[in-house]
Predict the 3D structure of the following.
Amino acid sequence: RSSYSCCYFVLPCCFFDFHGKYSRRQSKKTQYREYLDFVAQVGFVCGFHVEEDSLRIPSTKRVSFIGRSRTYPPAEHALIDNQITQFINSRQTCAVATRDRRVGFTHTDHCDSLREEAGSESPEDETEAAGTIWMPGFQPREKVEQIRNCASLPRDFVDEVVLNVANLLLNAAPQKSCSHIQGGNTNTWNQGESLSLREVAEHLNKETLKKLKSEYGGLQTLLKNNHQVFEVLNGRVHIRDWRKEKPPSKTKPEVKRRLSAEAFKTRLCWFFIHHPDGCSLPSEACPYAHGTEELR
């Protein structure tokens, strides 16, 4: 719609209309085929010769549409733009009707009545609407998408939350410990207690929670991002015990296993630095560095 010379390529995937999820109308077709027909219809309404092609990609949704030429001369561009406006308005109101069926509207009847109303409007009004607003209430995405998966949070803030949550779990059950045999001596290593995400959140201050709520997934995402320290299972937070982790595959040659083990030493071991009992693994078995001298 931006210009007569515009061409397009589209690979339909998620089932969305102009103002929300696409509502099915034909039970005889698969949902995917029906949605493809809808996307093709948009191209036809916009005055394109719509071509369909199947891409050679490893996906079940690989049907694409290409619009390379128009079905009308440049002089009729304004007329087609009015047609597009009516189509968009009809789809918008259809979406509202689908949500408000309890009022008594039916999907088809309401859309048909809207098309009749749209057709009764004067061409001048349609042209003015088409020239000023393509779709009322439409808000495009920002050009730069904001990262909200806790990855952009300040490192000091993340470290503080991790330390607070870990201490909370360790102090919740100081008597809970596991035997750890190393070098013939039996030591104990405090695994701490498991708490629900809600219980953990109740012990964090309001400012911290406010900052986490602005991120997708909030506290749970932050804890999962810190895989070295925590394990989140079924809504409960645990201190990760690296002795229980599966050993690396033994199918690799010994030389490759030794080289890959050295390559893993790119981060310091959190337990070696912060845990009151230190790391549960000896230095040669831990995938993290026990001191800066081990960093690679």
Remarks:
- The first strand starts at residue 8 and ends at 10.
- The chain has a mean pLDDT of 79.
- The chain has ten helices and eight strands.
